[in-house]
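Quick question about two entries, pasted in order.
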Amino acid sequence: MDTHIVVLAAGKGTRMKSALPKVLHRAGGLPLIDHVLTTASAVRPRSTTIVIGHQADAVKAALQGRENITFAVQEPQLGTAHALLQAEPALQRATGLLILLSGDVPLLTSDTLKRLIERHTSRGASATVVTAVVDDPAGYGRIVRVGEEIARIVEEKDATSAERQIREINSGIYAFQAKGIFDAVRSIAAENAQREYYLPDLVSIYRQRGLIVETITVSNPDEIRGVNSRSELAAASRVMREQKAAELMAAGVTIEDPATAYIDRGVTVGADTVIHPNVSLEGTTTIGAGCEIHSGSRIVDSQIGDRVTVFNHCVITSARLADDVSVGPFAHLRNEADVRARAKVGNFVELKKTVLGAGSKSMHLAYLGDATIGENVNVGAGTITCNYDGVNKNRTIIEDGAFIGSDTQLIAPVTVGKGAYVGSGTTIRESVPAGALAVSAGKQRTFENWVEERKKKSGG
């Protein structure tokens, strides 16, 4: 049976008080709607239609990298039933199953989605509703049952005081038979407090027609948690972090304080890695086995090998660290920094678009930008590769085994040859041949008794 996904993402999200569309706010490192679409992809849908409205162009732009998506525009926004109708042109010939999801419900699991499909198809239902039983149902539509069967869904603003005591709520997630769904939706009237066309009204319409309506109830209400405010966004993010930490710890990762571990859903971490408190691992970061990431470090979209140590308060973005590397404390690696096996990057060292070769080290107070540094190179404290000439960024090349003395400036483009030495305090403006010594400072001059004579002249 073909499965078609429709995601409702047209709302403004007034309570977010934001210029950004609600579905583009991030949780767990991704926009809310990305989580929904990733879950939907697990059932291999034949089509995916996203109903957009508020800031439609921004939502389209954010999803332009995804394939096989059709957009439908809802303008004005007149309720969930009206939103579904906007998908009719894309699905008017669709057969099989239509799954309706909300773009602001990011915690739904693929297992629940598969269970929804199984229940719907096995019972021959015309509609199946995902529900949850919660302690505080405020703000949600209530599931009204007659015996064990669902009779209707009532929105909170339209509910009686007795109905508001019901703790089983509507998630806004449904399965429908695709054939005839749009004709059925057109029969919904706006007879409610909001004067909107509510899709839940379809339940009572189907019941009146003698059609089968089923439900499945999630055991974890977090799955159907919607995001309508900044506090709800924070709550959803917290759940994602807890889930991710639990997943990693079950796989053999030590997380010393899960409450302060900010680890995005897309991050992978190898066994026997230790993550200290207040660490952020973001985006598509991968961390190998046996690593140690110390407190205060932030690693974004980077690849970390095995047995790597990242000391306190390092920032690593879009970088690659090979096996047995150590970094920090207080180091900054960015923009395609590439640190090869066994290399060491020390405190207050910054690498930008730089390769630091195997076994090389820069331990203190250096800026290495747009450089290619070979193997077993020592870069002394205070070294700067002066890569920008005011117009262009130029590269510095330091070949294997070279020794760069402290407080050296290398004016790119320049090459220091294999095994060459650069004396401390040198400004390198021309390439240094292999095995040569380069110095630019003159001979030291010492004036004895200079301090005492100066005091006499000044009367001090």
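Here is the second entry:
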Amino acid sequence: MINLYSTQIESLSIHRIGNKSRNENIFLSDSPYALNDELTALLKEYFFKSFREKEENYFQFVNEVDVEFNPLYKIVTEIFNNPASAHEKSKRIASLLYEQSQHPHIKSGEVYVTYLENLTIDNEKVEAVGIFKSELKYDFLQFEEKGTDLELLHQQGVSLNKLDKGCLIFNHKKEEGYKILSVDSNRYDTKYWLEHFLGVEAFEDENFYTKKYMKFCEDFSKDVVLPAEDKKEQVMFMNRAVNHFAKNDTFEESAFLNEVIDNPDLIPEFKHYKVEKAPKYHIEDLTEFPIANTAVSAARKKMKNTINLDTNIQIKMDFINPESAEKFVEKGWDEEKQMYYYLVYFNKEQKD
């Protein structure tokens, strides 16, 4: 979990980079930008809003030889070691991004490099380096009094409502390549920002493993449980899986299988499916790991608990009280109508 409420912008450097393949130039500011209170408040909202609204998927710097050879990792480490050098290092960061701006679709824009203090991550107060880029320009109108008339001026500028690209590099878990959050609203070249510039991969922690394993379970429910059983059992399987994650601090696969899979015949199917599909989810040898509660809560919100029937009827299952579906919903086959049916037991209808 992160907390950006008390974050302070200690320094801000602004540069402009063009598209190198179109022979557009790079402009590097000589000095850091002098902020005032009003502008600081606006920029904090502009820089951080997307990170507050986005699910926390962490990345880390990587390199095929050693993370020390990742150029951005090296520059950021130098800033953390000597914050007074942030502006000079920001020029190297902008130049690095310019060198990666080779794809014809990449837009020119402004690059903001900030040194930040008082961020909280994993209950620890740390510093961070923020790198942001504005690309899209929007039309707006300005008004100017000229004598007895009001004149309309058409201009273009950056909207503060949405950040185009950005990352927060926390001074946390340095040995593992730092913990990094990234946003990219304009995905015309997905490799440009994450791979070519940042040089990152997913940070494999409890949050990563919890999300990946739950996604694996969701796909297993669609590919195996649904064809072997029915929609009700698929929904109930995912309900039991989510509840197992929610009530445990540590995941242990054998305990999970014994509690979540009702049909013993599906346990070998689960193990076979894992062998076949595990590389896709990065869980090949994963049988035990700490569970991240935030990842479980996010997965529960996305979980579909509705049975949609071709007769334009929906049955909504209750994830809070799963025993109700087990006890009071039955599926059968009507020979006369040659149709399936669901039989639902109840005492009285609830008022809205």
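Reply: The mean pLDDT is 90. The first strand starts at residue 2 and ends at 3. Hope that helps.
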